[in-house]
Amino acid sequence: MAARLIEIDSELGAGTRGASLGIGALKVAAANKGIKVFSENPSMQVETCNDLIWEEVDTPFAKRIEGINRIFNRTCDAITQVIDEGQFPLVISGDHSTAGGTISGIRKAFPEKTLGVVWIDAHADLHTPYTTPSGNVHGMPLATALQLDNKSCQRNEPSPETVELWNQLKTCGIHANKLSPDNLVFVAVRDTEPEENSLMSELNITNHPVERVRTEGAEAIVENILDQLAHCDHIYVSFDVDSMDCDLVSYGTGTPVKNGLTPQEAQDIISGLIASKKLVCFEMVEINPCLDEKINTMAETAVDILKSSTDQINQIY
Prior knowledge:
Elements: E1 3-8, H1 22-33, H2 37-40, E2 43-45, H3 65-84, E3 88-93, H4 99-109, E4 115-120, H5 141-146, H6 160-170, E5 184-187, H7 194-202, E6 206-208, H8 210-216, H9 218-228, E7 234-240, H10 263-274, E8 279-285, H11 297-316
Parallel strand pairs: 1-2, 1-3, 3-8, 4-5, 4-7, 5-6, 7-8
Helix pairs in contact: 1-11, 3-4, 3-6, 8-9, 9-10, 10-11
């Protein structure tokens, strides 16, 4: 099974501009390093709606959700198509909102299978239109997969249009349950709001903080994750580059957070999960060269992880 790159240069869900340039930044970094991941693996591009950035926002508690709904469905269809064609979907996206479509596509392709999700990220991305402090949908993809509203922590009154479109995101691809909280594992999540903390506590969602990764080691963390997800048929790994330490790497991502993973720790965790032979999709998101104070260092770091991961996927799957 060969890896197939799925490129989604959407940034509708982000609060700062520039994530749509992340794929291009990766390609520049790859060319400069002589890395041929983009030339040696087949790819497809998902059509985006980035032109909506110029239009006035009329759904403030889920900004540009109409366009994001379209991206969800297109991403879902692309993932399902690649899996149905016997290839391994390796997703490179702009902002993280599209991950909800990725999960939808996996579940649509394997409706009878149990999916485990490993979310390597500084953020929990569990907000909803009812709880969001920003209205940016890249903070909501896991809530769509878990099909949550979190009204017990409600702070906003989204419009009927927003609610209708939000419900469509939750049911994209498959109306049945997409993800159980027991099958979700966070790694390096460290920047959350009270509404998300409440859900994490209520649903008992596992988080492996950076301190645990550092004290126990990546191998032990991977073993723990695989033990928790042992009953899952497939595992999907979503890697947000802001999981890495912004002071160590760069600030070239939409929402940088200090005290994150080292690139080696991130790579070791990803590599261990790939080696499980349960991986069904790998995703990399949120590179923003417009915010990179070190001139594309984030992409240069990420492309090494991308190459290593892709090579390993092509060897194993």
